[in-house]
Specification:
Blueprint: E1 7-11, E2 14-18, H1 24-35, E3 39-41, H2 45-53, E4 59-63, H3 70-82, E5 87-91, H4 94-99, E6 107-110, E7 118-119, H5 127-136, E8 142-144, H6 150-155, E9 161-166, H7 172-187, E10 196-199, H8 208-215, E11 223-228, E12 234-236, H9 248-260, H10 278-285, H11 289-293, H12 301-307
Parallel strand pairs: 3-5, 4-5, 8-10, 9-10
Antiparallel strand pairs: 1-2, 4-6, 6-7, 9-11, 11-12
Length: about 325
C-alpha cells in the first residue's frame, strides 16, 4: 500500500487501487464491477452486439476452445491483473469467432474509438505476453475521463501537459466535435506521443464552474485546448460558435503545433479562447487548485477531492 488517503480493494488474490472520484455512487458502481468475473463470455449475437457498442474503453476479445483450455486460463489470469479497469471478453463459439475474424487462441486488442482491433502477436500466449502488450498500449490516442478512473488518467500526462477536449455527447455541437476527435485519433493512432482526453461536462456537473473559472472558457459549447498539469496554465482553440467548429484537418494541424511547441499553455497571443474580462483573467492566473478546493467544507469530502483532480500527489 503506497499512497496515503487511497482506497484499496482486496479481491481474492488481487489488490485493486481505486483511483476515482470519492462519491458513494461512483465507488459503489466500481465495487459491483470488481465482483464480476474478469472475463465476460460472448455466446450469441445479442451479446456480440453489446460488445461492439462499447467504444469508450480498452477491451480485448479472445477465441478459445473452452473454459478448460490452458490458453484461456492464461488469458483469464491476465484479465485479473487489470480487472475491472480494462474489459476482457472471450468466446468459445466458432460462429462468433468467424464474425470477429478471430483464429483459435488469438486475442484482439481494441483501442477506444478505433474502427479496427490489433491482434496481439505471438499466439498462443502466456499471461506475461498479454500483460506486457497491454502495458505497452494502455495510453489510447483518445480516452474519456471517467469518474471511476479520473486520477489515473489525469496523472498519465505527456511532458506535463494534456490535450483536453470538453464536449457534451448529448449536444449536437459536442457530438460533432467528438466525431472530429475520433477521426483525428484514428489518423494518428500510431503516434505514441499523442493522447487526447475527452471530458463530457455532463459527467462532472460540480466541476463545470471551476473549470470555466480556472481555464477562462465557456463549457456551454465545446472547447479544445492544452493544459499544463502543474500550474493549470492553458490555451484554447477559437471555437466561438457552431459555424466556427474546426475541421479534422484544422484540428490535426493545431495538435501538430501543440506537439511541436508552437502552441503551449500560457501562450495567449493567437489561440487563447477567452470569454472573461481582464480582471477575471488576472485573478485566475494566481488561483491554485488547493486554494480553490479549500473553499468547501470538510463535509464535502468527495467534492474537495474531485476539485483536486489536477493536484493529487
Amino acid at each position: 500500500l503506497l499512497e496515503v488517503d487511497s482506497i484499496y480493494i482486496f479481491a481474492d488474490d488481487e489488490i485493486i487501487e481505486y483511483d476515482g472520484e470519492l462519491a458513494a455512487d461512483t465507488l459503489l458502481e466500481f465495487l459491483y464491477d470488481v465482483i464480476e468475473e474478469p472475463v465476460e463470455i460472448i455466446s450469441n449475437d445479442r451479446e456480440l452486439k453489446g460488445f461492439h457498442h462499447i467504444e469508450e474503453d480498452i477491451k480485448l476479445m479472445g477465441y478459445f476452445k473452452s473454459a478448460k483450455s490452458s490458453h484461456f486460463t492464461e488469458y483469464d489470469d491476465a484479465a485479473e491483473e487489470f480487472h475491472p479497469l480494462i474489459k476482457f471478453f472471450a468466446t468459445f463459439e466458432p460462429r462468433i469467432a468467424k464474425k470477429l475474424n478471430l483464429k483459435m487462441n488469438e486475442v484482439d486488442f481494441y483501442e477506444p474509438f478505433m474502427n479496427k482491433p490489433v491482434s496481439i502477436p505471438g499466439k498462443p500466449y502466456i499471461e506475461d505476453d498479454i500483460v506486457s502488450f497491454i502495458e505497452e498500449h494502455d495510453r489510447p490516442t483518445l480516452r474519456k475521463l471517467e469518474p471511476h478512473s479520473m486520477y489515473e488518467i489525469w496523472e498519465d500526462d505527456i511532458n506535463e501537459q494534456h490535450i483536453v477536449a470538453f464536449a457534451e455527447e448529448s449536444d449536437p455541437d459536442g457530438y460533432e466535435v467528438l466525431e472530429i476527435l475520433k477521426e483525428v485519433a484514428q489518423e494518428n493512432t500510431e503516434n505514441p506521443d499523442l493522447s487526447i482526453i475527452w471530458i463530457d461536462p455532463d459527467d462532472f456537473p460540480l466541476m463545470v464552474p471551476y473549470w470555466e473559472k480556472t481555464f477562462g472558457i465557456d463549457l456551454s459549447s465545446p472547447q479544445i485546448g492544452v493544459v499544463d498539469v502543474e500550474d493549470a496554465d492553458s490555451v484554447w482553440m477559437e471555437m466561438d460558435d457552431e459555424e466556427n467548429m474546426p475541421t479534422a484537418d484544422e484540428l490535426d494541424t493545431w495538435i501538430e503545433d501543440v506537439m511541436s511547441g508552437i502552441i503551449y499553455p500560457g501562450d495567449e497571443t493567437d489561440y487563447n479562447h477567452d470569454n472573461n474580462d481582464d480582471d477575471d483573467d488576472d485573478e485566475d492566473e494566481n488561483i491554485g487548485f488547493e486554494d480553490h478546493c479549500s473553499c468547501f467544507s470538510a463535509s464535502d469530502t468527495h467534492l474537495v477531492r474531485t476539485c483536486a483532480v489536477f493536484d493529487k500527489q
